[in-house]
Amino acid sequence: MNNINDDQISDVAFNLAVMEMVRLLIAEVCFDEDPEAMKQKLGRFEDLAVSGLSARQHFDDLDQATNTKMSELAAHHVTKIVTSIRHYKDA
Length: 91
Fold this sequence. Notes:
The chain has helices at residues 6-30, 35-54, 64-83. By secondary structure, it is an all-alpha fold. The longest helix has 25 residues, at 6-30. It is flat, with a radius of gyration of 16 Å.
């Protein structure tokens, strides 16, 4: 096994679990029998999330550059999660 301790393994496992549940919830909310309609819903969901992240400063005690970097990284994660969702007809 790699050189990571049980706490680190637990933290990563927790993040994986939360990400999977978020993926499932987004897929349920955006589901449509029509794969194209579902892709459009997922796109709107992603756009709203990314816009929301970009529209505000998240931590008042951090400088603008750090807040911007966090928002950009968070937006990247949103895109990564949303694009991992597939319609069952596309699988």
